[in-house]
Amino acid sequence: MAFYIGLDGGGTKTKCVIVNEQMNVLSELVGGPSNFLVFGVDEVTESLFNLITDSIKQTGIKTSEIASVLLGTAGAGRREDAERLENSFIRKANESNLPIKKFVVESDARIALEGAFSGKPGSILIAGTGSIMFGKDSRGNIHRVGGFGRILGDEGSGFHIGRSGLTAVAKQFDGR
């Protein structure tokens, strides 16, 4: 029997789900953040490794039965960035005798878009720790707005809303 691990992560937390071939959920755990552009590849690799191994232990499945692992996370919009995390995780898994046949990192926005519309045209808005608008038109072209991080602009994100609130309080306190 084959099992699949899916992870959905961002700047606050990462959810890990293990399913069987019939898509029955066998395990669901939550771990730390997985935005490796903010927290670093090494720290995120370690956190993901622990989350995945804890999930595997919870189900009792054999690691050799895991067909693939897919992580959708903030910060993985550029292929070369995603490959850095993929390579780091695969190296860690090999060093730890965890035989993962396939480990893929993709943008959380792309995962959400494909999941919501099954490959058809549509658009999604992520407004979590960060924010991004992501869509696919009828010709299959991908379009995005935002998602540039807290420094360059994540309007509508939890970080932006919190910071705007604190800025307003500081201005009021100063009498500005």
From TrEMBL:
The keyword Transferase applies. GO terms for molecular function: N-acetylglucosamine kinase activity. Its EC number is 2.7.1.59. Keywords: Kinase, Transferase. It holds the Pfam family BcrAD_BadFG. Residues 5-176 form the ATPase BadF/BadG/BcrA/BcrD type domain. The keyword Acetylation does not apply. InterPro entries: ATPase_BadF, ATPase_NBD, Euk-type_GlcNAc_Kinase. PANTHER family: N-ACETYL-D-GLUCOSAMINE KINASE. This is N-acetylglucosamine kinase of eukaryotic type. It comes from hydrothermal vent metagenome.
